[in-house]
Each structure stands twice: as C-alpha cells, then as structure tokens.
C-alpha cells in the first residue's frame, strides 16, 4: 500500500513540475502514515494519530501519568473531551478498531447482525473456523470429517461473511488467537473478539478483549461500545527466566496469587526490567501465552509494553511497515513514568520455578517439584494417561521447538512417551513450518499424534476412547482451562495445566511424580540420565512457511449474496425478538435452581458435543445448567418441578414453567459465569423464561451478556443472604418502575411456610443498559433507534 501511495505522489510531482516539491514532501509524509492494518484490508489504516491525540487530550484532563492500558483504552474513546473517567466506576464509550469471531460464537453473532437489518459491517471483521473440529484420529482425517459434518454451518458463515463484508478463515486455517497474532494484532490496536481468550493479543501490545456476540454486533454496526472503566493491576517483573521455567509459569503463578476472580474488572499490565528477559528468552509469543491465560483470573484483558521483540515478530510476519510506524509512536505504546496502579504484584523471575495448576480449577497452583507428593496426599491419580500440547495458549513455533528439544533427548536414549501424547499446531503457518523444520517428525517419533489446526481437546472436541466415563484418571495439558469434564466430558478426569515442555517431560515419564529439574529417567540400555532444560528458536531461521491459503476475502459488493437458513435445520435458526419488559415489577417467580459452588459457563452451557447447536437457540437450550450442582440434593441436572412435584432435568422443568407462563430465577454463588465468553449461557435462560440471575458475584463477560439479552443480573447486597433462599421459594423483584443506576432493587422472598423477607439486591446497570432491559434486549433497542 505504501509503495503505491508514494508512486502516486511521484506521478503527481511529474505532472505538476518542480514547483510542487513542497506538496510532494507533505504528501509523502501522509503516505508514510497510511499503513494498512493488515494485508487483507489495504484500505483500512493504522491510526496512531488519533490514538496519540486522544491520549494527549485525556492526559491533560486527568493531569497525571497514564498506564499503558489507559493509553490504549482512552486512546479509543468516542468522546475524549467529555467522557467521564473513573477507574472501576464509570462506563466508557469506545471505538474498537476491529472484531474477530470464532465459528461457535460467530453463528449467533451473525444471526443477530442479520436481524439488525444493517447492510455491511462498519469495521474490519473476521470469522475463524476452529471450534467445530473434533479430535479423533489425526489432523487430516479429522479436518475432512469436520468439513462434511459441519457443511451447513460453514456455508452459512462463509455466505454471511461474503454478504456483510466479513473475512472468512476456513476450517484448517488455525486457532483464532494465533491467526490474530500472525495477521491482525499490533501495538496499540483495540480488538474485541467473541472468545474469552482474545486477550492473547496483549502479547503484541494490543488491547484485545473477549465479549459476547451482542457486543460484537454493536461494534460491527458502528455503535460506540461500552466497557466499565477498568482498574489496572500492575505486575512488575524483575530477574530472568531460565532453565525449565517458562512464560507459562508467570501466569500460573499469578493465577495462584489472584485466583479465578482476582482480576475481575481490571486490566493486568506487565512492566519492569523482567519484561525484557521474557522478550529475549521467551519471545513475544511467550508474552501472548501470559496474556491469554489472564482470562483465567477474570481479567478484562492483559497487555505488555511495546519492545524490540514485538518489532521483530511484526517484521517476521510481513508487517515491517507497522513496526516502523510503532517505533515512531513508541511513547504512546509504553506506560508513562510514575503512573499508578490500583494493585501491584512483584514477581522475581530468578526465583520462579516451573508450575503446574489443577485439578478442576486453573488457580490451584503447585510447583512441579511438589505436585507428586500433593497428588499422593489428595488421592489424585499419579499415572499420566495423556499429555496434550498446543491450544491457543501454547502452540507457537517456539513452544513446539522447546517440546521437540525435550522429546529428542528421550529419543536419543531409546525412549518414547509412556502416556498418550497429542500435538495441536496453532495455525496452518505453524503446522507447515514445524513440519518443514523437523519438529513434527520428532514429536511424532516420541509418540505424538498431530491433530488438526484447531481448538480440539482444549474445548472438549475430543472423542476420547482410552478411559470410560467416570473412570478416575490424570491428564496434563498446555491448555488454559481445566474445569471439571471440560476436556473429555468425564467428570473424573483430573486435568492439570502447565507448559508444553513440562507436559512433554511428564508424558515421557508417565507420572506426575517426576521433576525434570532433579529426577532421572532410565534409558533403553539401562543407564540413568537427566533431561537438559529445553531450548527452541523463538522464530524460524528460514521465515515462516505459510502453508495452504485458507482465507476467503469478502467481495467488494456482497449485496447479491444469498444467506439461507432452512426452517427445518437442527443446526441453525433465525432469531425472534425477545419480548419487552412488562412495565411493572416481576412477581412470584419460581427458583428454578439454587446453584451450589463453582458455576462456569461450561456448567451453564456445555461445549463439546453441544457445539453443533450453537447456531440454533432452541436446540442448544437443552443443555442449560445441566452441569450445575443443585444445592437441594447435591445432584447435577436434577431439580424439583414445583408445578408437578416431580424431579426432572433443568431444561425440561424450565420449559414446563415457560409453557405454563411461570417466570423463574436462578440463584448462584461467587464468580457466577466465569470462563468462556459464550453468550448462549445468557441467551438460553432468556429463551426458556428466565427473568433474573441472583448471585453473590458475577464474572464480567457473563454479567454483560445477561444485560444484553434483557435478563437482570443482580447480586446480594449481603452475600450471606444466599443462605436465606430455599429451593421452594417464590421471589418478586420490586423497584423496577423506578429502576436507576446505583439504586438497589428489592427481592421479596416468600417461603413455603408463609413467612416473607425482603432482601436488598445490587446491580451495575447504567442508563443505556436499563434501556436494553426495558426494550427486551440490546438488539431490540438498536432497532428502536434506527
């Protein structure tokens, strides 16, 4: 793009003669500033000028140094002159640069965009086919089968992309977050993605935020996007990573410190002298790993400051022009000297040891040196049945190289993996490059099966055959999440997350009770040997091999493209608008279920085999809350229907209540809705007649998703009031006629013994969000305003 613009300027100069020299110089400068956001969008440009201008306006208004997070977020304000800014309190109206959607969430996002009636997306947007490919036998066969099984969905997404101006990455292209890193993320960009691990892009100095599909529709429609002004948690890194310690250990340690809800409402900003150690020893992609798994502590996103490693990565991935421009604006891409954080964590990398987190929650952190003893004490199975490397968290060229360096040491001593071993490349580019450079052969020779360039077992797309459901067993992965039954639908599987090199070592040893820093393996000839610390090139010496071309450009004019949704399809269903608010209080609602303990979006709307219904709201609603524990009987998917007196499955009872015009609420515990960004966990309760979710506290994305769909997310003013709710209560919510920001609502709880009590309920609605509720959903409100 740049060369064409300069050529055009020279042509003007020739036409106008020597008197136009001043015009030539200024036009050349303008041309220099016009650098395309990606090679796929030659007419959409990086806008550092606007970023810098907004930062200057806000810094002058606030009269203080700014964190990097603030610079990029406030740099995208819709109205920097007048926006009220108070970290943790006010809502910001923002203008993100682009949108990315994975195929499981893109279905509902595009169905909502279609029902908005708009002709074309207002910002660059992409769809990535990565979630619907099930791991069974190996990459080639699994991909071919997925294309056949999901043909209807892929055709819908492809045609919808073409019609509405959205780029389409075909199945086999790779995992959304790796594709974003390779093509779309760059320092200072603001990207929203319909996947909770979108923050992966923070490793390239971007503010990348996971959202539900309705939020994506706002941005694609050209509407200012709302985000509660994030607090900023600073993580100051000192020292240097070395030996078996990897970037993954930084976030495993931070997760242990902050827990699964410690980052809620905040951006985690890494800074300090240790950042250069990470960028030197573990590359920009290592920083992406750290940001990716920030989703596990509930953070809005995570980010690293611009540095020379990011520049090198941009150059290696064909974006040298962006790197040169970022160098010019580098002051806007690092924190100001003397900026202040809401919370500060200091981490000395010299003292950091390899970690492994789990089972059943990603914040249960253990040093690898201690996990064997801890497992024995707790009765966790020591034998490692399967080791799985890859996923969006750890599937870079360097990750694969470090794992291969461990595998080669074992092969040289005549050993292969005692456990089963799978390898998931992050993208077609990574797959082709590790194949060319011999890593795939090493990982295959040690016992690895290379799976498709997709999410696979990380999200439950795994047809696991080696253990029966209910059989207690241990797996180790380089993934990001390890909730109960997430990977293989077996609630007895103890899943642990760690770095790819530790996974490889444990798969070779076949046991959790192995510390590669100190313990010995026995070679085929009987001699004892220790594994050397892993090593791997950060980037390929011969540049990346792009592999097969898997991108579909939208046509310049897609208005004639047809997007068909069959009325008899069981995979796709056009959306009907939800009903408006009744205009009064919500009276005498049943408690559908009082949930006990952890309730993630996996519990509310399971993935795995249910992914195939992500475009069909009625069908996917048959998985609503089937993983949640009922406080009444400690059972899963077994609740009492108070109209019939019989016990049934959660979705069936909800449908029965709806058919009988009985509204209902869900009562829940802390950090309700943590995990994935899937808005189906909000759409399903709305579709089946739910009016409110009342809990101790919410995870950020889920709370927003509920608001978008016209459901009331409410929290107990006194968290111990959770204990006052009984399964057979009826609940009325009072105060809705005077519903206002900051003003609590009241739950009038009627017990079956005739007694009543009033409980105060808090909410975080602002004026705009109250309008969503009154209209029945954010999409309804958007149509009212058109």
From TrEMBL:
Protein name, please? Aconitate hydratase, mitochondrial
Q: Which organism is it from?
A: Sander lucioperca (Pike-perch)
- Coiled-coil stretches noted in the UniProt entry, renumbered to this chain: none
Cofactor(s) the protein needs: [4Fe-4S] cluster
Q: What reaction is this protein's catalytic activity?
A: citrate = D-threo-isocitrate
A GO cellular component annotated for this chain's UniProt record is:
mitochondrion
PANTHER family in alphabetical order: ACONITATE HYDRATASE B, ACONITATE HYDRATASE, MITOCHONDRIAL
Name of one Pfam family that matches: Aconitase
The terms under GO molecular function for this entry are:
4 iron, 4 sulfur cluster binding; aconitate hydratase activity; metal ion binding
Q: Name one GO biological process term.
A: tricarboxylic acid cycle
Disordered as annotated region, ranges:
527-565
The primary location reported for this protein is mitochondrion
- So what family is this one in? Belongs to the aconitase/IPM isomerase family.
NCBIfam families per UniProt: aconitase_mito, PRK07229.1
Please report the stretch or stretches of sequence annotated as the Aconitase/3-isopropylmalate dehydratase large subunit alpha/beta/alpha domain: 70-510
Q: Keyword annotations for this protein? A: 4Fe-4S, Iron, Iron-sulfur, Lyase, Metal-binding, Mitochondrion, Transit peptide, Tricarboxylic acid cycle
Q: Quote the PROSITE patterns the UniProt record gives.
A: ACONITASE_1, ACONITASE_2
Pathway membership of this protein?
Carbohydrate metabolism; tricarboxylic acid cycle; isocitrate from oxaloacetate: step 2/2
